[in-house]
Amino acid sequence: MADLRIHDWWNEPRFRECLTPELRGEFILRKLMQHDPSKCRKVLRTTCGTPKLLPVRLAPSQWQLLLGAMGASLVEISEVLIRLGLTWQ
């Protein structure tokens, strides 16, 4: 699967403005939607069971499933969880 190149995201000014885990989660979900909107919606529906709203608070296991389905490597998944202040379950 293609690398999401998330290491570039952390240097974006919009990410640096995200001072809470909720805002960081919204930023990451927005980037995933830009990467592949239909896949992101499908994985979110499957993972979270919310067809209309994008959840901001996801469990680490939900982030792992979502990011993995979007093509993130284990290193990238770990990096996102660290940035969100979450730990592996």
Which structural class should the secondary elements be placed in?
mainly alpha
- The percentage helix is 55-70%
Question: In percent terms, what proportion of residues is strand?
Answer: under 5%
- In sequence order, what are the helices and strands, one letter per element? HHHHH
The multimeric state of the shown protein is: single chain
Q: How would you sum up the global shape?
A: globular
Give the termini separation: 24 Å
Individual helix count: 5
Contiguous uncertain segments of 5+ residues? none
Number of domains: 1
Structure report:
There is one protein chain. By secondary structure, the protein is mainly alpha-helical. It has one domain (6-83). It has helices at 13-16, 21-35, 37-48, 60-69, 74-83. The longest helix is centred in the N-terminal third of the chain and has 15 residues, at 21-35. It is globular, with a radius of gyration of 12 Å.
Helix and strand topology:
Blueprint: H1 13-16, H2 21-35, H3 37-48, H4 60-69, H5 74-83
Helix pairs in contact: 2-3, 3-4, 4-5
